Amino acid sequence: QERYSAIRHLPAKTLDKSRVQLLMNAGLMADLPSLDSSGAEGVGLFRTELQFLVRNQMPKRSEISAMYKRVMDAAGGKTVVFRTLDIGSDKVLPYMPNVEEPNPALGWRAIRVGFDKPGVLRMQLQALLRAAEGRPLSVMFPFIAQTSEFDFAKREMEKVKERELKLGHKLPDEINIGAMLETPSLAFSSDDFFKQVDFLSIGGNDLKQFFFAADRENELVRKRYDTLNLSFLDFLKTVVEKCKKNGTKLSFCGEDAGRPIEALCLAAIGIKTLSMRPASIGPVKNILLKSDLSEVQKLIDKAKVDNDNSVRDKIIQYLASR
């Protein structure tokens, strides 16, 4: 981080005056000091499952609420987006029945668990509402594959809000409710859905493996498919256009957001909010400050004309010439 200390608190603005918001991912209180040291503008993803995974029994609502409050306090007014429990697949709670599944990445996980165990979801939502203590709150539901799942999650939030009011608890001044787009199916939802969500966050790690049908844990195939593949960029561009049409805030979260070349291309196609590991913010900002997004978009267009599989080589050449 010291290497990038001179640009730490500069806005990530490209040569063509495009502003890109750089956020950090977190999951522990110990991550929060990186908000200042990295120059992150907020927390684009706070993983809430870690507090559940490190225990031998279900945590109490009061315990996780106190934790969320400390996170918001430490953020000092900067945005924190809390993702509700993303368990299942590779993250199994030791005190819940372990369901043997032939393909857990496509199985009973994330919001699907919440759908079948709404009590756990409600408990977590209550904890978040209380932790906010009237402050603005952003909550994101993971692995939404169809609009009915988001409708369910939103209804649960409404039920919890009503209960909290009856108990005399103060609600946040503002509640933003979003969804993670990790399955291609959600991208083809109706305009009504895009208008209904306050924000969408593209979960790049899962989305990429489902788009290419390539297990990201499988070393035999995971490196064969490039994020800068033109078909994948085109797919992401359709999401950008749909969000623009419906006034939906959009971000990208995942390993690729923290890779400078990938981040540059994501910004060029219109994804102007990126969430990444704190250590990646300096390198990504450094590349953005030196680049012109309109030129990068032209290179993407040229790669299509040239029938390239990926735009990566052209971007590497462009950066080498800077």
Describe the structure.
The protein has an eight-stranded parallel beta barrel with strand order 2-3-4-5-6-7-8-9, surrounded by seven helices. Helix 6 (147-166) links the parallel strand 5 (137-141) and strand 6 (175-181). The protein is built from 14 helices and nine strands. It is of the alpha/beta class. It has a single domain, classed as Alpha-Beta Barrel (TIM Barrel), CATH 3.20.20.60. It starts with 11 loop residues before the first strand and ends with a helix. The radius of gyration is 20 Å and the shape is globular. The chain has helices spanning 34-38, 50-53, 61-75, 111-116, 118-132, 147-166, 184-187, 191-196, 204-212, 230-246, 260-268, 278-289, 293-305, 312-320; strands at 12-13, 19-26, 42-47, 79-83, 137-141, 175-181, 199-203, 249-253, 273-276. 45% of the residues lie in helices and 15% in strands.
